[in-house]
Amino acid sequence: MIRRRRERGRRSAAAVAVVAAAFLLSGCTGGDALSVDELREIADAVDPEGGIDCPLPYDFAEAAEAAGVTGDAGPGYATADLAAISGETDGGSDPNGPFARNPGGVVSCVFHIGREDLEVHTVATRRPRALSVLLPVVSKAAGVGPDGLIPFSEAAAVAEAGTPVLVTSGNVAAVRLELDGNGDASLLLTAGDAGHSGLSRGQVEGLARALAGQVPG
């Protein structure tokens, strides 16, 4: 869901910083886990023109090290100067948007390791199956259709929080996240495209696990 969004008007970088700082502070001081409302606020504060630095407290270099992945790791695309963050919520103008049936929000951030681009999508919804919002992303990244999406989605929905579930190709992983209050939340990590990545299945799994561990829970 990394794309430009103009329908809501421009948000300032300061708004993102304030909301994200509050989230970081709560996590660093042993506060509550992520909530649906909190993620919606962060998503709504993302500048429609995008940016590079993820507004969520992910230390991608640390996660890469924990997963045993070598190479320069950080925010943004490896070789392109493009917007690397986006946010979307049920507050958009599209009545048929991804959150039409299950209100919530998603924050999407691009990172890189060497020349490999990876996307980290953090989604939270009022009702179960938050990951369903991101199944089109899974389909494109993993190069799979319904036959591959359904078992992946079912397994991810019942997995314990913090436990990665991977698609057959091994380049996409989902991890359920703990939430403060009602709702459902997941982290989706994609590496490469169409089922192909320079990372191994184990590295993708390790990255997803490490990133999920950075979200206050």
Care to describe what's here?
It is built from six helices and seven strands, in the order αααββββααβββα. It has helices at 13-28, 36-45, 60-66, 135-142, 146-158, 201-213; strands spanning 73-75, 85-89, 104-113, 116-125, 165-166, 172-176, 184-191. The chain is α+β, with helices and mostly antiparallel strands and 217 residues long. Strands 1, 2, 3, 4, 5, 6 and 7 form a seven-stranded antiparallel beta sheet that branches. It has one domain (13-213). Mean pLDDT is 88; it is low at 3-19 and 21-30.
Tally of strands: 7
Tell me the fraction of residues in β-strands, as a range: 15-25%
Shape: globular
Output the radius of gyration.
Answer: 16 Å
Q: Tell me the series of helices and strands, N- to C-terminal.
A: HHHEEEEHHEEEH
Determine the fraction of residues in helical runs and give it as a percent range: 25-40%
Mean pLDDT: 88
The profile of the biggest β sheet is: 7 strands, antiparallel
Q: Kindly give the count of domains.
A: 1
Protein structure class: alpha+beta
The residue ranges in which pLDDT falls below 50 over 5 or more consecutive positions are 3-19, 21-30
Oligomer: single chain
Q: Can you count the helices?
A: 6
Q: In whole angstroms, how far apart are the ends?
A: 25 Å
